Amino acid sequence: MTEPTAPTAPTEPTAPSQLLSPSGTAASGIGPALPPERLLLGPGPSPVHADVLAAQARGMVGHLDPWFLEVTDQIADQLRQVFRTGNRLTYAVSGTGSAGMETAVVNTVEPGDTVIVGVNGVFGGRIADTARRAGAEVVVLEEAWGRTFAPERIAEALADHPEARMVALVHAETSTGANQPLADIGALGADTDTLLLVDSVTGLAGVPLEVDEWHLDVVYSGTQKCLSVPPGLAPITFSPKAEAVISARETPVRSWYLDVAAIQRYWGAERAYHHTAPISALLGLHEGLRRGLAEGLEARWARHAEVGGLFQEHIQDRDAELLADARARLPQLTTLAWPDHLDEAQLRRRLLDEHGIEVGGGIGPFAGRAWRVGLMGEAATHATVDRLLDAIDELLEG
Prior knowledge:
This protein is an alpha/beta fold. The protein has 2 domains: 50-293, Aspartate Aminotransferase, domain 2, CATH 3.40.640.10; 296-397, Aspartate Aminotransferase, domain 1. It has helices at residues 50-56, 66-83, 97-108, 122-133, 151-160, 183-188, 240-247, 260-267, 279-295, 297-316, 344-355, 382-397; strands spanning 39-40, 89-94, 114-119, 137-142, 166-170, 172-173, 178-179, 195-199, 218-220, 233-238, 321-322, 333-337, 357-358, 360-361, 370-374. The protein has a 7-stranded mixed sheet with strand order 2-10-9-8-5-3-4, sandwiched between helices. The chain has a 4-stranded antiparallel sheet with strand order 11-12-15-14, with helices on one face. β6 and β7 form a beta hairpin. The radius of gyration is 22 Å and the shape is globular.
C-alpha cells in the first residue's frame, strides 16, 4: 500500500498567542492551542509516540476512498492479532472506550434479558447502568474494591439464573488496579448460550488477553491506554456466538449510531456508508497497532509486567500502600495510598506543577486517599519509573 504524501507543516504565527482577556471576553485574536510539556502517568491517556502523532497529521482522504478502505481492512486484521482472535466482527468503534461499552451492551441485550454484572469498581457499575438502560434485568454481584471474582462465584450466579443472557466483567479495573482472571470463567459458559462480555479498556496490549482461548464473546477496549494512541476509538470484537445473538434480535438496537449490523456494512465487504469514519484517528490507530505488533505482543506484556512490578516494589519503600489485591494486581495501573499525614491532592498538584508529571487521583471509595499511576504503552520504561520516583522523592523531602 502506498504511503500518502505528508502535508506541508503549517507556519507558526510570529505574534504571541492571545487567548482570553482577564475579563473573559475574546481579545484581539486567539493564538494556537499549544499543550504544555507533560509526562502522562495517570489512568489515561498515555504518552503517544511521535510516529503515531505524525500518522494522524498526514494528508486527508475520503472515508470511502479505496486506499483508506484498505487501511481499515489492515486495522481490523491488526486488531484480531492484538485481541488474539479470529472473530470476523472486529473493528474500531468511532468513539472512546465508553462508546465501546455501549456498543457491546446495546447490541447484545434486549428488554427483559437477565444480565449478571460483576461490580468491583466504577466500570463494572457503568456496565450495569448501561444494561439497565437497555431494558435488562440486572443481577449485580459485588466484590470489594481491589479484589476480583472467583469462578465459583460466577458459577453460583449462573446456577441461580440459568436464563441469563450474559455475564459481564471488567478485565482491568481502572478505578482499582485489579486484574480479573478470565480463563476459568470463560470456560463456564463455553458450551452454553450465555455470553461473556469483557471490558478490557485498560487491559488490551498491557496484560495477557486471549479472546478465543478463553471463550470471551464480546470484548471492547480503548486506544488511549496500553496501545498509546490518542483517545477517540474503541477496538471491539464479537464472537460467532455473539453475532448469532445480534442476528436473532426481536427488537431494534437502542442506538442508531452504535448499531453493529449497520456499521459492519462499512467495515465489511459491502462498504456502505453509515457515518463518516474518523479518518485521522484511524490512521493513528493503524500506526500504533503496527508499532505494537512489531514489538511483539508477548514482549509488550512482559515489558509492562517488569516495569509495573519495579515501580510497585520501590514505591512501597516510600511508605505507600498498594490497594489492589496482591494476587491480582495490574502492572500497568497501580492504585496506592499515602500515609494519612500527607495530602495526596496537594502532592499530585505539586508533581504536575513542579515536575510536569500527571498522575490520577482516586475515584469512588478511593477518592481523596489514592493515586492511580499508569505505566502504559510508551510510559512503560525504566527511565519513566526513575523520573517518577526521583520527583516523588523531592516532593516527600520538601
